[in-house]
Amino acid sequence: MRHGFSGNASFLDLGTIRMFHKIYLGSSCGEVYKGVRRRMKRKTAVIALALLFTSALAFALYAQLVKAQPDPDLNDDGIVDIQDIATAASAFGSYPDHQRWNPEADLDQNDRVDIKDILLIARSFG
User: Fold this and answer.
1) Contact 48, 40 (CB under 8 A)
2) What is the pLDDT along the chain (126 residues), one digit of tens a residue?
3) What is the pTM of this model?
4) How far is CA 4 from CA 7, 8, 40, 58, in A?
5) Three-class SS of residue 92?
6) How far apart are CA 36 and CA 33, in angstroms?
């Protein structure tokens, strides 16, 4: 047993950890694959690389989702407070081409200012 793992844990050596670290520092895929292949059997290397690239893709998608979250601070004063809720409340029930329509109050971007938008502001209140 090595590093708390049972069985064949040779993939935990320092060289392999450094090699995996290169992925996040911008090494080319071919260079990384060569380093992995030296330390592991081909099948294991392919699986490890697939998992790494899948997790990198998942992280990138998560980062896009986090970045896409609407900003509930409607008046851009740096805090989410009653003024932001009042701004959304004044546009409540409106839609594009309506006289009270405020696109900034439509946080969920469904072309209606409804209770969901108010809840998104309230969730970040304070």
Assistant:
1) yes
2) 344 444 444 444 556 656 555 555 555 556 656 665 566 566 676 777 788 878 877 777 776 666 567 889 999 899 999 999 999 999 999 999 999 999 999 998 899 999 999 998 998 888
3) 0.47
4) 10, 11, 20, 27
5) coil
6) 5
DSSP string, 44-81: HHHHHHHHHHHHHHHHHHHHHHHHTS----TT-SSS--
SS3 42: helix
Residue type, 103: P
Q: Which of 115, 91, 93 shows the shortest CA–CA distance to 103?
A: 91
Instruction: Give me the half-sphere count of Cα atoms (radius 13 Å) on the Cβ side of residue 94.
Output: 19
Chain position carrying tokens 């469904």: 110
**Token output for 9:** 């844990």
